[in-house]
Amino acid sequence: MIRPRGGDFCYDADEFEIMRRDIELAKRLGADGIVVGLLDVNGNVDVVRTQQLADEARPLTATFHRAFDMTVDLFHALDDVCTAGIDRLLTSGGEPTALQGKETILQLVTRARGRIVIMPGSGIQPENARALVDHTGVTEVHVGLRSSIPSPMLHRNPRISMGPVEGREYRRFVVLEENVRKLCSALGNRD
Question: Which of 11, 111, 164, 179 is deepest in the core (most CB within 10 A)?
Answer without folding.
Answer: 11
